[in-house]
Amino acid sequence: MIVILTGAGISAESGLATFRDLGGIWSQVRLEEVATPEAFRADPERVQAFYNARRAQAAQATPNAAHVALGHLQAALDDDLLLVTQNVDDLHERGGAKAVHMHGSLFSALCGECGAREPWQGELGNGERCAACGLETLRPDVVWFGEMPYHMERIEAALQKAELFVSIGTSGQVYPAAGFAALARDCGADTLELNLEATGGAFDRVETGRATEIVPLWVQKTLGRQVSD
Ligand code: APR
Question: Which residues does the annotation say bind substrate (predicted)?
Fold first, then answer.
């Protein structure tokens, strides 16, 4: 089994900002003001506006060659591949892959009252009502700092039986994702980082470069055949 973890770097060449690169999202706005439950309680309009802007940008973006290559890999490997993403955009899906969104998705709304989820396009925070309970309590279905990431049991079970763990486009700064390479390696997996720069994580091998170049090449090597864009 191969487990792949992706981060914002895989969507950078689709025009979506990363968080910690020069000029990244967290250099433009303080995460404490837009990405915590406390921030949402204090100023819901501000938080909704932040995610409305990111949802609009993500909707305008197109999957790049790295997303498409992972779609081909998943089509070939099926259940022998688990693709986990920290990203809340839908470019993996639009690139042909099914991804496990451990930080949620901009394209899902969560009811803060009854916990119901519903697919969502467009803006939130203008009086929309939850389809299940009817209250005006819909928030972005994204995991804020201080909240529990989604699907962790499934992810940890996969890491424990993986032969290979591949980290793509993530700085490895945020736990629990930052601990996945070490966990996989402790359980016997080989670990590979495909990233613009080495992050110093628990990787046996590191290939540096832009995702649109190094990910399709790696997928081709893994499949032993060309993967078209
Ligand atoms: N190709 C490959 N890697 C790239 C590219 C690119 N074109 N551009 C940037 N990168 C790399 C950077 O070198 C960096 O290591 O992608 C990584 C992006 O790191 P971050 O901006 O920290 O994003 P990420 O690791 O996904 O952040 C993790 O932090 O704020 C939270 O919830 C948020 O999911 C996010 C989490």
Answer: 51, 54
